[in-house]
Every structure is written in structure tokens, then in C-alpha cells.
């Protein structure tokens, strides 16, 4: 059996579907669709040097990698590689070949510090450590059964608070951009991010095929955007995911993020979505508490591994 690594062929629907299938089998807590995969390839900022790779064994895609520079970070030289192999096709060399190809790509573009998310399982962690990566922060994947009927009831809105959907902002999505930019900076991470390019944000995020504008809720206070909960959905599988929940600093401590997320979850359930997913840094106690209040349960964890290149 021979394993080789090559670029994903975005114009080959079967190739993209195989990529999505491997990702789903390895990481079923994130929404993977062919359209989302090709969108990311086409619309990630050029400075990210983003590539998607596949490991192929005798014509079958058994492993995947998504590789890029943290172009929107104020610290240069940071690279990210996320490698996933089909759980029933491990120990065939696919992961090792993908790591080598990913590291080569990043170092050719001047990366000096590499980050990779690794599922918190002994074999996966040992794989990363053998290649010189050291453990950093960790995060949880959480799941909520929307068919169970256990969502907290909708709460009355405080005076001056209005809930709108992202669809209501179709003519001018800048309030969404401003919230995303402000809250992303405060999200727990070992790679700082600064959104400054509105036009790129429109192409990469606002037009993302998984973004469900009708189920994304934005809380306004006296007409000012204050908090939001971003919904991604895959109608074919009945799955809903919270891509981001956040509150602008000036409006924190009022429960606005909880109001926005509860509104979005209730409407997702009414629309027929059965499973809801989200993710939280293990150190983000306030958001973990909110998700526990909703009824989410931890279904898996991952660890961020880091390697500094000498």
C-alpha cells in the first residue's frame, strides 16, 4: 500500500466530498460540507497562504490537512496546521506525511512558530510530541440535543434591548463585522487576531455557505450592536453549530450573550434542527457556565500543541 500527499482538487466534487467525509469521521463535532471547504480555499485572504492537502492510499483519501499563516495576527511568523486521518486508516504513515508537507509549506513562507489542534487522546498526543510539539491550552467540544425540549424558556427583554437577526442586517452587515472584530480580540487564544479588512470579512465570513443569517441573533442596546450569537447550519444533516458568541466590552455583565444565544437556539429548534454543537476554551469559565445552563454536555476535548522552529 502506497500513501502520497497532494493538494486538494477543489474543482473535483468527489475529491472535496472525500475530504469532508474524512473530516467528519475524525471530528464529528464540527460542520464539514463540500461547499464550506471550497469556500475557504477560494476566499481565505491571500496572505494566509492557505492550502488544503489530502493523503491518498491507492486512490482513497484517508487523511487531510488545512494549513495557513496567521495573517490577521499582529505577531508575524505564526503558522497553523490541523491534521486529521480517518480513524480506521491510522498507522499507515498518512499523518506523518501530511505533517511534513504542512511544515514545509509553512517554513517556506517564513513561519517560525507552529500551532496544531490535537484530539485529547493518548495516541494523538503522543504523535504530536514525537514530532517536537509541546502541549499548550485546551478546549472542549459540547453537544446539545435540541429534540429533548430542555432549553431554558425565553426571557423578557430588558428595557432598550432589541433582538434582530443577521438577515435584518443584509443591507449593511457592518454591525456584525464590528462585533466580530471586537469580541474576537478578547477570545481566549494563544494566537492574537485582529480583523481590520471589512471587504475580506464580507467574502470570507459574511458569505460563508454555513452561515445561517436567519438563525444568527444580534442584540442591540439603544440602537447600538452589543452582543451576538452566530449560527452555522447544515440542513442536510439537521445540525446547528454556534460559530461565535460574544459581547462588546461596554455591554458585558448584562446577560446579553445569553439572551442572543437562547433566541437563536429556540429558533433553530423550531426550524427542525436536532443537534447543536459549540466549542469553548477550557479556561473560559463564563461561557462554559452559560452553555451548561443551556444543557450542553462535553463530548470531546482537544489540546493545542506548539512547536518553535530553531
Features:
single chain; 310 residues; alpha+beta; Aminopeptidase; 2 domains; 12 strands
Structural overview:
The protein is of the alpha+beta class. The chain has 2 domains: 3-111, Gcn5-related N-acetyltransferase (GNAT) (Aminopeptidase, 3-Layer(aba) Sandwich); 144-301, Gcn5-related N-acetyltransferase (GNAT) (Aminopeptidase, 3-Layer(aba) Sandwich). 30% of the residues lie in helices and 32% in strands. It is built from 8 helices and 12 strands. The protein has a 12-stranded mixed β-sheet, with helices on both faces. A hairpin with a 2-residue loop joins β8 and β9. It is globular, with a radius of gyration of 20 Å. The model has no long low-confidence stretch (mean pLDDT 94).
Given the structure, what is the number of helices? 8
- Biggest sheet layout: 12 strands, mixed
Count of extended strands: 12
Please indicate the percent range of residues in DSSP E strands (runs of 2 or more). 25-35%
In CATH terms, the superfamily of the largest domain is Gcn5-related N-acetyltransferase (GNAT)
The chain-level structural class is alpha+beta
Mean pLDDT: 94
Helix content: 25-40%
The total tally of domains equals: 2
Global outline: globular
Instruction: Give me the strand/helix succession.
Output: EHHEEEHEHEEHHEEEHEHE
Strand order of the largest sheet: 1-2-3-4-5-12-6-11-10-9-8-7
Q: Quick one: CATH class of the largest domain? A: Alpha Beta
- Give the second-level CATH assignment, the architecture of the largest domain: 3-Layer(aba) Sandwich
Rg, Cα atoms, Å: 20 Å
How widely separated are the two ends? 35 Å
* Poorly predicted regions: none
The fold-level CATH name of the largest domain is: Aminopeptidase
Amino acid at each position: 500500500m502506497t500513501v502520497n500527499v497532494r493538494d486538494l482538487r477543489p474543482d473535483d466534487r468527489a475529491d472535496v466530498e472525500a475530504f469532508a467525509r474524512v473530516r467528519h469521521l475524525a471530528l464529528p463535532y464540527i460542520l464539514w460540507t463540500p461547499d464550506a471547504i471550497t469556500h475557504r480555499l477560494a476566499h481565505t485572504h491571500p496572505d494566509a497562504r492557505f492550502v488544503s492537502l489530502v493523503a491518498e492510499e491507492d486512490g482513497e483519501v484517508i487523511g487531510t490537512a488545512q494549513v495557513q499563516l496567521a495573517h490577521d495576527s499582529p505577531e508575524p511568523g505564526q503558522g497553523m496546521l490541523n491534521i486529521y486521518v480517518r480513524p480506521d486508516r491510522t498507522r499507515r504513515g498518512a499523518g506523518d506525511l501530511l505533517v511534513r508537507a504542512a511544515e514545509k509549506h509553512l517554513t517556506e513562507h517564513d513561519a517560525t512558530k507552529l500551532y496544531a489542534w490535537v484530539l485529547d487522546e493518548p495516541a494523538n498526543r503522543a504523535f504530536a510530541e514525537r514530532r517536537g510539539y509541546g502541549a499548550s491550552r485546551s478546549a472542549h467540544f459540547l453537544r446539545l440535543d435540541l429534540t429533548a425540549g430542555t432549553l431554558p424558556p425565553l426571557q423578557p427583554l430588558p428595557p432598550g434591548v432589541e433582538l434582530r437577526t443577521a438577515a435584518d442586517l443584509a443591507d449593511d452587515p457592518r454591525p456584525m463585522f464590528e462585533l466580530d472584530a471586537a469580541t474576537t480580540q478578547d477570545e481566549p487564544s494563544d494566537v492574537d487576531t485582529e480583523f481590520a479588512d471589512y471587504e475580506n470579512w464580507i467574502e470570507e465570513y459574511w458569505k460563508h455557505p454555513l452561515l445561517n443569517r436567519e438563525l444568527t441573533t444580534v442584540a442591540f442596546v439603544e440602537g447600538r450592536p452589543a452582543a451576538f450569537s452566530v449560527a452555522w447550519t447544515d440542513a442536510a444533516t439537521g445540525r446547528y453549530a454556534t460559530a461565535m458568541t460574544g459581547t462588546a466590552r461596554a455591554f458585558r455583565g448584562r446577560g446579553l450573550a445569553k439572551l442572543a444565544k437562547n433566541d437563536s437556539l429556540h429558533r433553530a429548534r423550531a426550524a427542525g434542527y436536532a443537534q447543536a454543537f459549540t466549542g469553548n476554551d477550557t479556561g473560559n469559565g463564563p461561557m462554559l457556565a452559560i452553555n451548561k445552563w443551556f444543557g450542553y454536555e462535553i463530548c470531546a476535548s482537544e489540546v493545542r500543541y506548539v512547536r518553535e522552529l530553531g
